[in-house]
Structure formats: C-alpha cells, structure tokens
Amino acid sequence: QVNLVESGGGLVQAGGSLRLSCAGSGPTFSFKAMAWFRQTPGKEREFVAAIDWSGGGTYYPDSVKGRFTISGDGANNAAWLQMDNLEPEDTAVYYCAGTTRDWNSPDYDYWGQGTQVTVSS
Which residue from 101, 66, 76 is spatially nearest to 21, judged by alpha carbons? Predict the structure, then answer.
C-alpha cells in the first residue's frame, strides 16, 4: 500500500502563489502517472493537473492552464503543484493521487488525505 501525504496548503490572497507537495511512501513500485484533484463542499471532485511518467507529458483543464504547473519525481512517487495567480474560485481541498493506469483513467488507485487551499479576495 502506497501512502500519499500532501502539504503546502494554506490561506493566500488573490493573485498570490502556493506550492503543494505530495510525498509517497511504502512499496517501491512507481506509478504510471500522478495527478492533483480538488473538491469543494457540494461539488464533484475536479481534475486539476496530471503528469505522465512514461511520456513526460503534463495535462491541465482550461480553468488552471497557464496558472498551475505540475512536476514531480516518478521514481519516488512525489509530485508538486505550483499554483500562481490564484483566484478565490481555486479555494478547495486539494488531493494528490497516483495510478498504475494511464493519466486519464477514471480510476486512480491511491489518494492522499487532502490539503486545504483558501484564496481570499
């Protein structure tokens, strides 16, 4: 069982930046891809960013493209999310996830506990 632990959340003013970290521990197998998702109360979980270790590609929805950057270390199941020019609409609990399938698979196998990001206007 791989454990994922997020850190780096907090309170920031609109226009500011935060960097989230995700550290993996446990069995020494590597994910095929890792991703970040976010969720606010009453809404479905939303895809934020993914990185595909096999091809090195990164993927974002239009809502964060140009503002968020995902990076990481596939060998150690670690990922980071640099978030710039934050908007109040980015307020959510952010989750790190890993999968042994393709980055766009609907089923991510492993999840962190989440870290709160709050952006004030």
Answer: 76
d(CA 88, CA 71): 23
Would you say 103 and 33 are in contact if contact means Cβ atoms under 8 Å apart?
Answer: yes
Q: In terms of DSSP bridges, do strands 10-13 and 68-73 run parallel, antiparallel, or are they unpaired?
A: unpaired
- The pLDDT tens digits of the residues spanning 9-65 come to 999 999 999 999 999 887 766 789 999 999 999 999 999 999 998 888 999 999 999
pLDDT at 1 over 80: no
Burial 94-112 (b: 16+ CB within 10 A, else e): bbbbbbeeebeeeebebeb
Phi-psi region of 42 (alpha: psi -120 to 50; beta: other; left: phi over 0): left
